[in-house]
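Deliverable D5.2: sample structural annotation.
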Amino acid sequence: MEPLKIRSKPQDTDATRHSAGQEVEIGATLDRVLASSAFRKSEQCRKFLSYVVEHSHKGEDELLKERIIGVEVFGRAANYDTAEDPVVRVRATEVRKRLAQYYGESAAESDVRIEIPSGSYRVEFHWHTANAPDMAVPSPPARRRVPWLAAGLGLAVLFAVWAGVLVMRRSTPPDTVEQFWVPVLESSKPVLIYCGQPVVYFLSREVHDRYRNTVPPEKQRGSYALTLDPKESIRGSDVIPVTDQFVGIGNAHTAALLAGLFAEKHKAVEIRYANDLSFSDLRGSPSVLIGAFSNLWTLEMQAGLRFVFEQDKGARRIRDRSDNHTWQLPDLAPDGKTPEDYAVVSRLFDSATGQLLISAAGITQNGTRSAGEFLTNASLMKEALAKVPADWPKRNVQVLLHSNVYKGIPGSPKVVAAHVW
């Protein structure tokens, strides 16, 4: 998707100069947003944002429907099932978080503010007051004498309206997401986000040389998958364990969502990986642990809770310690692909660290990704916590989630159970 640009010289009128000026400012802002750290490494988010900005500015609302975006931006078939494949909704949520991160960290003073309201894909543009486009200002009407009493009553009414607005703003209760995160947001210390790391196994150079001809030459320049002969044995020296170098997609996705949420709330964040975390770090700040079987801290800190992660003879599952009921993935493929996943979100006030501790983890990376969606989605949280005690914001919480997975993308998570104590 090419950036916004003026494709033809408009007729030189006040209206066209005004529109052209808007287009230039929006295009310049979009270029800076796409080049920022929040968007630089996410090609799908870049494509989505460029598409909705361009067609919103042109007023082409008919091209901002979910199905059309799925086809035009993500290459889906024209008849694809949007309920089973929520790629547009997922990317829209992610882009909203990344926009909040950009405007919270690196926006220029002259930037037009680009917003995508929840439930819509049509972009709203907001200009900074100092850089707002010139607008025609009508001539003031002829001055008339106004009785002082009428003027006083007018001021009194305006003051009452203004005071009422302030009262309404102050009395508006926070949404469920904000209630969940209030203890973190009120802490004077930065929130620590820790992503677990999987162990990855490399094949030796000798194996690659032997099987490289199974990969088309045009695909050998980057990452590629070898097709090994299932009947041939390889030596132990041909399998090389690699630690502390990789983060799973589910972990990274959840970390990005949380970073965007905290940027929107102006909360300082520290993100840690691999071995860059100690127990003293957890004792010093409110923390979020992402991932389960790739994150030993999660497994250790959740050991005594109601919903726990377990591994038995290679099979991974979640167990309810109150009745020993288990949830596992019977259709989990050897390569980790699965049509469904389960996840657990926990928030502990009385953790072993002495600090607030939150964890978000799935049996696979798909569940971890769904847990991240849950932690940043007010409607999902509201549904999960609708039947628990009203004072849950001050208590420990665990939520068990389930999500269907379509072509590697988890759908909206559904609440299986919630526990408050």
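Annotation notes: Residues 5-16, 134-173 have pLDDT under 50 and may be disordered. The longest helix spans residues 148-171.
The annotation will be released with the project's public dataset once the embargo ends.
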